[in-house]
Each structure stands twice: as C-alpha cells, then as structure tokens.
Design brief:
This protein is α/β, with parallel strands linked by helices. It has helices at residues 12-22, 39-49, 59-69, 76-84, 102-110, 120-137, 146-155, 180-184, 188-191, 201-209, 211-224, 262-270, 302-312, 316-332, 340-350, 360-381, and strands spanning 2-7, 28-34, 53-56, 72-75, 91-94, 114-117, 141-143, 163-170, 231-235, 241-247, 252-256. It has a 7-stranded parallel β-sheet with strand order 4-3-2-1-5-6-7, with helices on both faces. The chain binds NADPH dihydro-nicotinamide-adenine-dinucleotide phosphate. NADPH dihydro-nicotinamide-adenine-dinucleotide phosphate binds next to helix 1, helix 6 and helix 10.
C-alpha cells in the first residue's frame, strides 16, 4: 500500500489525483490533504478519503475544522511544510499552484519523499536547489506535467548522451493563430476557454500566452539536465502527442494519449508499473491528422523570455515567474490587457540585476522584489 499526501487536493490536479486513487483504494492510502481556501471541498475529501492529517491556509479555519472532523489540521506555510514531510507518507503529489508550492515541495524533497511534481513553478525558480537536494536526500522526482511525463517515459533507461534534443508540444492555447490586434481585445473569459485541457485558472492563462511552455522549457532543463538550446517547442493543436525525444540516430520516440491529466498522474503514482485504464481510450482511427508547427513568438513573446531567463540562470527565472504571476493575476482581475502580460514580464526582467542562487532565501528575495516591481508597473500604467 502506497501512502500518499496531496498538496493542493482541492485544485484541478488534486481532484484528478483523487479520482485516480478512488479507483485503486487497494493500492493507495491517502494520508494527507491540503487546501488553500476551498474548505467545503476539503471537508468532503476528508470524509471520503479519511487522511491522517490535513492543512489549510487559515489558522482559525484549521482549528475549527480539526475539532469538527476530529483530525489534525495544520495551517499556514509551516503547516504545509510539515505535512509535506510527514513521516508516514511515501509519496507526495506537489500540486499547489505557483510560487506558494516552492517551500512545501522543498520540504518533501528534503524529507527524501518520492515527489510527483505538478508544481512546475518550484523547479522554474529553484531548480538547481531542488534537484541538488533531491540527489542529496534520496528523493525521487517524477514529473506529472504531461509533457515531462512523456519525456520521462521516452528517455527512461536510455543514456543522456543518446539524446539529440527534446521537443515539447504545445496545444497553442485558445488564441492560436490570432494576431496582436485581436489578442489585445481578448478578455479573461476568452482566455479561460482552453480547447483541449480543463485546468486551473493560472495555468490556463499561461497556456494562452505560451508562458506555460516557457516555464516547461525551464522545468525540462532541470528535470532532464539538457540545456535549453536542446529543448524545442512545436505547436500541436490536437494535444495527442504529449512530447517527443529525438535521439542521435535521428529517430524519435513520442508518447501519445488522449489529453487527460489522469494519465500522467496515474503514471507518477504507480511508477514503474502502470495502472489499468486511468483515462479513456485513444482511438487513432478517429483522429484525422496530427499537425506540428513552429510557435509564433512575435505574438506570444513570453516563450522567448523564458528561454532568455533560462540562459541567464541565477535569480532571473524566479523574476520571470514572479512577474508572470502578478501579471496573470492583474489580467484575471481586468486591471490590464492580454498584451500587457509580456510587457510587464520583460520590464521586470530588464530592471533585475541577476544574482547566483545558492540558498533558497535568495530566490525568496528575488520573488519578493519582482512582485513589487511588477505591481508598481501595473499601478503606474493604470
Ligand atoms: P488549481 O488552481 O486548480 O489548484 C491549485 C491548488 O493550490 C488548490 O488546491 C488551491 O487551494 C491550492 N493553493 C493555491 N494557493 C495556495 C496557497 N497560497 N497555499 C496553499 N494552497 C494553495 O491549479 P492546477 O491544479 O491547475 O495546477 C496546480 C499545479 O499543477 C500548477 O503548478 C500547474 O502549473 C501544474 N499543472 C497543472 C495541470 C492541469 O491540468 N491543471 C497540468 C500540468 C501542470 P484552494 O483551491 O483550496 O484555494
């Protein structure tokens, strides 16, 4: 029986993970669940999965919930880092969104857990520290992001030297093919209508700007040890090929399935085994074509900024990430337009003096600085 903690169980990934687990209760036991503010859903999940402890953002809520359900409920950042390293769990699914997932992920890694990593932002901002600590503390990191899960499956058991490059596929998001003028008129409601994937709000906007792919380039660099010039991106609107690897003999391996996060979540949970039918069948005979195209980085420059940040290294990826989180939030609140998102990110990056990252505190300070800078830009321009 594998004992599982889910950080962010009330989110899109967390809910899908519980769906997978609910069909395999003989293999998996949920021991920890966490929510930010969706306490109603967390309470339902606690009743169904009976974890040994839970964590929420607010202290008063934690005390009240703990008394009502007769379970240990932790709170705040300290609660998240404690539950992430809980000694009675074997596997931690890191599925909190954004920078908030960094310290809990690091805590799970430093406790030597097997970590199913959905929270890409933690690798983006502190990839060297996380991967270094994973090696030091014996933690295995299994990617949950569908592209990285695909690459993980393609390179498994093969030498890094045999790989020529990796190709991350991108759906292109809801605005694929639009010009800048059209993009300027797009509202959060338009951007939240993703053609293929049903995801949380932040990643759906990142998908529309192509920043999601940019974050994934940096994530792939840390997970697999390839420099960003060996990581390419192709737009593949059908979202059937989840990514591919080109080997030095010029042959490719790709991983295909219907676009359903239950697939990569199930693979991370059961690795190296596979579960029976965690997602619907892919019927290739009903898919007329699989197409691939270069991304339009003039209209969607966030992807280029991520490559730049990856090459710069140090604190620059943390600055890119923080400015993006602030800009996406402002767009969702209708304070800025869609085309302002890359402008804010670039302005913040241009103002930053990069520092080397040896300690996590340097990342936390870069994040704080970049958020302040991006917020000031938004205030000035509104
Ligand atoms: P959601 O917005 O759906 O869920 C986010 C989760 O994080 C919720 O449980 C939320 O709690 C919790 N949370 C948010 N802020 C905090 C905080 N400050 N403290 C504690 N908990 C917090 O996001 P997704 O599930 O879509 O994404 C999660 C991660 O997985 C992201 O990093 C994303 O990039 C990655 N990912 C997601 C994919 C998807 O298909 N959704 C695909 C690949 C990667 P609550 O709702 O209770 O407030």
């Amino acid at each position: 029986m594998k004992r599982i903690t889910i950080l962010g169980s009330t989110g899109s990934i967390g809910r899908s993970a519980l769906e997978v687990i609910s069909k395999c209760r003989d293999r998996f036991k949920v021991v920890g669940l966490t929510a930010g503010s969706n306490i109603t859903l967390l309470e339902e999940q606690i009743k169904v999965f009976e974890p040994e402890m839970a964590a929420v953002a607010d202290e008063a809520t934690a005390i009240e919930l703990g008394k009502r359900l007769n379970i240990k409920v932790l709170s705040g950042n300290a609660g998240l880092t404690e539950i992430a390293s809980y000694s009675r769990s074997d596997f931690v699914l890191s599925a909190i969104v954004g920078f908030a997932g960094l310290l809990p992920t690091l805590s799970a890694v430093r406790a030597g857990k097997t970590v199913g990593l959905a929270n890409k932002e933690s690798l983006v901002v502190a990839g060297d520290i996380i991967m270094g600590d994973a090696a030091k503390y014996g933690s295995k990191i299994i990617p949950v992001d569908s592209e990285h899960s695909a690459i993980f499956q393609c390179v498994d058991g093969r030498s890094r030297e045999s790989v020529k490059r990796v190709v991350l596929t991108a759906s292109g998001g809801p605005f694929f093919g639009r010009n800048r003028e059209e993009l300027g008129k797009m509202t959060p409601e338009d951007a939240l209508k993703h053609p293929n994937w049903d995801m949380g709000k932040k990643i759906t906007i990142d998908s529309a700007t192509l920043m999601n792919k940019g974050l994934e380039v940096i994530e792939a660099h840390h997970l697999f040890g390839f420099s960003s010039d060996k990581i390419d991106v192709l737009v593949h609107p059908q979202s059937i090929v989840h990514s591919m690897v080109e080997f030095k003999d010029r042959s490719y391996l790709a991983q295909l399935s219907v676009p359903d996060m239950k697939g990569p979540i199930a693979y991370a949970l059961s690795y190296p085994e596979r579960l029976e039918d965690p997602m619907p069948v892919l019927d290739l005979s009903r898919i007329e074509k699989l197409t691939f195209r270069k991304p339009d980085t003039e209209c969607f420059p966030c992807l280029l900024y991520a490559y730049e940040a990856s090459k710069e290294g140090g604190t620059m990826p943390a600055v890119l990430n923080a400015a993006n989180e602030v800009a996406v939030d402002a767009f969702l609140q209708k304070k800025i337009g869609f085309n302002d998102i890359p402008v804010i990110i670039k302005d913040t990056m241009n103002s930053h003096r990069k520092e080397a990252v040896r300690e996590i505190d340097v990342v936390i300070e870069a994040d704080r600085w970049a958020r302040e800078k991006a917020k000031k830009y938004i205030l000035r321009s509104s």
